[in-house]
Specification:
Length: 68
């Protein structure tokens, strides 16, 4: 089953760190919040948190918005 990112399926060619995946998707890892399978992932764990396609993983990425 493909990785779901914000509800959309994304193929994952090989296991990679959350940090690398976020950069590949065009996110700035230092300025977003991430939940993996419903659990908040602290920024200091982005490099050590490995994302695989071995199980159904859901990633929610929240980026700050400007405006009011």
């Amino acid at each position: 089953m493909p990785l779901l990112i914000n509800g959309e399926p994304h193929p994952l060619e090989s296991p990679q760190s959350l940090y690398h995946l976020l950069e590949t998707l065009g996110y700035e890892p230092k300025s977003i919040a991430v939940a993996l399978n419903g659990r908040f992932v602290p920024r200091h764990q982005y490099i050590s948190c490995m994302i695989t396609d071995d199980d159904s993983q859901e990633l929610e990425v929240v980026a700050p918005m400007q405006g009011g």
